């Protein structure tokens, strides 16, 4: 079965388990997804089946939108409520909208993040979370993150909400911790929902029950990364055979299609000559 499915992953399930359940529902062994959601997070997960698994490197992955909630006054080892509390303090105040907005400003645009120890990144071949569980903390290099949109609002008591649009690889729990730190506070994330990716929205996603009824499938063109320019070609035979071709375009990487069929990813090699990166048919 060749399909692209938008799943609303429930909290308490790994992305791997979500893919496995889709595999069973659709009776398709060849499956994959475009970006992991933590087990304690819910929201939009793009799952690809059959030949569409070839699309994974060319799918949208940036401008991910999240809705998170957090509590001021607590700091945990995992930066979320499911970790061990390591520091606590009474928040200095209930922050009003003006102060919350003022604190957002330095975090918009390009920022630097130190990845949390409880993450899937590797150090000398070992996952950081595995080291953390052994009580080992290692130095992590700061990584760039792009924050396209950020807003924070007070909910009640010491609880707040954050809406953010960020680049791939950004840690929302770290963003929350750093944001609170700029106010001289501790904070820990209490919930996280991925509400969108690029042009896709969580409202388009379906539950597993809806998928069983045939809902949730989207057109493959909806998930293609805009970094790859979609171009119609009349060189179908050469493209299907993976041959180098000449293209008149200002774009260095393109997805070639013919009569609505997606054929291949090509990248500029020299001048107007393009080389096949991957067949997608």
Calculate the terminal CA-CA distance, rounded to whole Å.
14 Å
Using the CA coordinates, give the radius of gyration.
Answer: 22 Å
Return the structural class.
alpha+beta
Report the order of strands and helices: EHEEEEEHEEEHEEHEEHEHEEEE
Number of strands: 18
Helix content: 10-25%
* Average of per-residue pLDDT values: 94
Strand fraction: 35-45%
- Number of separate helices: 6
Largest sheet: 9 strands, mixed
Note the overall shape: globular
Uncertain spans, ≥5 residues at pLDDT below 50? Answer: none
Could you give a quick summary of the protein structure above?
It is built from six helices and 18 strands.
Tell me about this structure.
This protein has six helices and 18 strands. Strand 16 and strand 17 (261-270) form a beta hairpin. The mean pLDDT is 94. The strands form four sheets. Strands 1, 2, 3, 4, 7, 10, 11, 12 and 13 form a nine-stranded mixed β-sheet that branches. Strands 14-16-17-18-15 form a five-stranded mixed β-sheet. The chain is α+β, with helices and mostly antiparallel strands. It is globular and about 70 Å long. It has helices at 15-26, 97-104, 128-133, 172-182, 208-212, 236-240; strands at 3-9, 31-33, 42-49, 64-72, 74-76, 85-88, 109-113, 122-123, 126-127, 143-156, 159-166, 187-197, 200-201, 229-232, 245-246, 253-258, 261-270, 273-279.
């Amino acid at each position: 079965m060749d399909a692209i499915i938008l799943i609303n992953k429930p909290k308490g399930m790994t992305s791997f388990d979500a893919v496995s359940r889709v595999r069973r529902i659709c009776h398709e062994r060849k499956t994959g997804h475009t970006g992991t959601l933590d087990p304690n997070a819910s929201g939009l997960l793009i799952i690809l089946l059959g030949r569409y698994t070839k699309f994974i490197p060319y799918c949208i992955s940036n401008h991910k939108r999240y809705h998170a909630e957090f509590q001021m006054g607590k700091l945990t080892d995992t930066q979320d409520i499911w970790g061990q509390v390591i520091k606590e303090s009474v928040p200095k105040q209930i922050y009003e909208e003006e102060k919350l907005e003022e604190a957002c400003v330095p975090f918009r645009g390009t920022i630097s993040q130190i990845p949390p120890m409880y993450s899937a990144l590797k150090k000398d071949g070992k996952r950081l979370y595995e080291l953390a569980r052994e009580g080992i903390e290692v130095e992590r290099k700061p990584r760039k993150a792009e924050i396209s949109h950020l807003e924070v609002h007070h909910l009640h008591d010491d609880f707040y909400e954050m809406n953010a649009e960020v680049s791939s690889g950004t840690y929302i729990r770290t963003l929350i911790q750093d944001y609170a730190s700029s106010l001289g506070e501790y904070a820990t994330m209490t919930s996280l929902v991925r509400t969108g990716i690029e042009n896709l929205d969580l409202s388009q996603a379906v539950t597993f029950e809806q998928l069983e009824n045939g809902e949730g499938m989207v057109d493959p063109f909806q998930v293609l990364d805009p970094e790859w320019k979609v171009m119609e070609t009349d060189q179908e035979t050469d493209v299907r055979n993976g041959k180098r071709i000449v293209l008149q375009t200002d774009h260095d990487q393109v997805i070639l299609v013919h009569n609505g069929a997606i054929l291949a990813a090509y990248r500029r090699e020299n001048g107007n000559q393009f080389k096949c990166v991957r067949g997608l048919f």
